[in-house]
Amino acid sequence: MGGTGSRALRIALAGLGTVGAGVIRVLDTNRELIARRAGRPIEVVAVTARDRTKDRGVDLGRFAWIDDTTRLAEAEVDVVVELVGGSDGPALALARATLAAGKGFVTANKAMLAHHGLELAEAAEAAGVPLKFEAAVAGGIPVIKGLREGAAANELARVTGILNGTCNFILSKMEAEKRDFADVLAEAQALGFAEADPSFDIDGVDAAHKLAILASLSFGTKPAFDRVGIGGIRHILAADIAEAAALGYRVRLVGVAEAGAHGLFQRVHAHLVPQDHPLAHVTGATNAVVAEGNFVGRLLFQGPGAGEGPTASAVVADLIDIARGEAGPPFAMPAAALADAGEADGSDRRGRAYLRFAVADRVGVLAEIAAAMRDAGVSIESLIQRGATADGSVLVAIVTHEGPERCVAQALERLRGSQSLTGEPLWMHILG
Amino acid sequence: MGGTGSRALRIALAGLGTVGAGVIRVLDTNRELIARRAGRPIEVVAVTARDRTKDRGVDLGRFAWIDDTTRLAEAEVDVVVELVGGSDGPALALARATLAAGKGFVTANKAMLAHHGLELAEAAEAAGVPLKFEAAVAGGIPVIKGLREGAAANELARVTGILNGTCNFILSKMEAEKRDFADVLAEAQALGFAEADPSFDIDGVDAAHKLAILASLSFGTKPAFDRVGIGGIRHILAADIAEAAALGYRVRLVGVAEAGAHGLFQRVHAHLVPQDHPLAHVTGATNAVVAEGNFVGRLLFQGPGAGEGPTASAVVADLIDIARGEAGPPFAMPAAALADAGEADGSDRRGRAYLRFAVADRVGVLAEIAAAMRDAGVSIESLIQRGATADGSVLVAIVTHEGPERCVAQALERLRGSQSLTGEPLWMHILG
Questions:
Q1: Active site residue A210
Q2: Higher pLDDT, A286 or A4
Q3: Is residue A16 domain-shared with residue A44, that is, in the same domain?
Q4: C-alpha angle B33-B38-B41 in degrees, rounded to nearest 5
Q5: Together in a domain, A112 and A201
Q6: What is the ipTM of this complex?
Q7: Residue A336 falls within a domain, yes or no?
Q8: Which of A271, B83, B227, B273 could be bridged to B20 by S-S, CB 3.0 to 4.6 A?
Q9: Same domain, yes or no, for A127 and A163?
Q10: Tens digits of per-residue pLDDT, B43-76?
């Protein structure tokens, strides 16, 4: 069955950072178990990285060292594993060269897949070789497999997820310790949970890369990263999280993708998540994805979204699949069958909103905000004004009734430049 | 890729109850989508069921009708789907005949797999055909795939799960509405969430079947249903759930399997689950499984555990895998490589316990219970006595410190037959 035989699956590994070294550790530590499950041994035979001399805590002497990343594609291997990162450059060159050479390709590179996934899937299918990327989305959680195979009998209507562990760590900590964003970010950086330049994470770009991949898999559409609406978390205050909690919500950075009548809708944005929703219980650096299918209903996949062990676990799961003879197109159906994503226009989208204004403490401010809402046709469900912040501003938090999002945008437009506002308003969506 | 070609995968279907009719509905409704994902059409060509005339809401006229279940194995098909149920009888005869005929076999039959899974896996491997059973555990949740493939790079230490939707529905409703067991069971039966004879569900047998399958997959051991310790939920009172809630726990029927130094430990039992544990948030008929791996950490799979749509979704996911050319042994590694489960002796197991006594309302009762605990070496963390119940008994609830479970058993043994007790004590484990 599967024709796997007992010949080892030979691997070349590009990138020996945390995850790359982790892959070697997984293959060493669980060697016998993996061979039994895979039907044959999995053996790294060649490696490359920027710095040959750095101590990574694993013995590299047994592997061939190849200086030029792209030439790894010429090594005598079955599969090349790419853990270099970056949407273009050496990673993309290696992917193209590997697939052109008729070898399998495994990667954790979400940025590359979000930008070039279609091209790479076409190349893999043309060559008849596997292209796999479980580690690219939600770290150790087998959610690519869960959507591509586990939920394959279903037409999926919606996929939502907490896809960035750094943001979830920060938001959870802000909530638990009632601290503000900048303060918690600094601590996360000191602990290694956030990068020195954290913008890809905290501004939602990393989550958007992952969402574009999930959407393609879920809805049979071409990956369309440039049509993801992207927002981040850096303007959220501890006071926003406290207001949300008082209303029965938790604040999370959530990616939402929906296959609608007007094409694919994709957005990464801060959301108020009802406390009885599965994503509300996801704390710390954990990731989670909820998929809604027309027969299965709502599935939840949850687990560690990053880190050496979980990410390496996902890479090696892909290798085991390949060793077993796993077949099938990378994005669940042939690249040629993937539909165009259509317009990402969400202007007729409806929902409830949380709006928070920092305003000057003087007569008439509330009336001005309320009038802007009324004139734009936004119906207010609740409004709370709390005492002054450190800089003397007053916070006004509004929850709207369900209505068109474009009305909310119009209301904010009407208030733009108002002397009453002491800062940019914050708009968070309420997850329905 | 995968050599699937475009020839249809032909299916014979045994059993046209809720799930069987659901499989036909899924294949009809999502026909085009499934063909794109599977690489070829999936077509039911022959069916069998007890009653040919019953209206199931699907057109059966297009399928060959075969009266004798076992003879379905002789139909000109690639795969037989068994949804008849029962650990032996026609289901087992069909499984044996199908595999002997060199055809693939897909089943939702947890009882048959728990009792005969090893034999069937050996037969499938000998014939070089797939044996798949995603629908047998946790309904629509792709947890078999998640453990067998998604977590395949890991040595798993422990698998815990809420595996019976009927029990979880009852316990959730008892908690939310502060009602007692018998009352809620009657309502669940009226609503169709519980069988007329509910004992397989509420006494833990159904969950134990599923746990034995998960344990085999997770730990590379032969399925060992007869070594699962089994308890149910019928003696739990609304008062127990209220005490648990006051202590920060929820009451759930949890299956626990661990690969320990002394062999496999498997138990289905009512547990107090800490409110910050993922299983505490699983309400209603939902199922969930937590797997703990040595690299990935803790993974959670959650979703609908039963019902027509979810279960049919899992059956069809197996068929799509087969159509794609999915390969590999049924229990993650070859049957010949599965280890013996070893002794199921949990006598040196340690943990914390919740004990509840219904006692006569008179002097000296508490002293008697406390003395029995002391004499057995059980250390008490908290003890609460609440006012009398309807029958005049008083409830005494004890939470122990961590200690050997055998000491708790000894304490209960000391109290056996005591005139102070007006009913059997209740023992629930506290999930660590």
A1: yes
A2: A286
A3: yes
A4: 75
A5: no
A6: 0.95
A7: no
A8: B83
A9: no
A10: 999 999 999 999 999 999 999 999 999 999 999 9
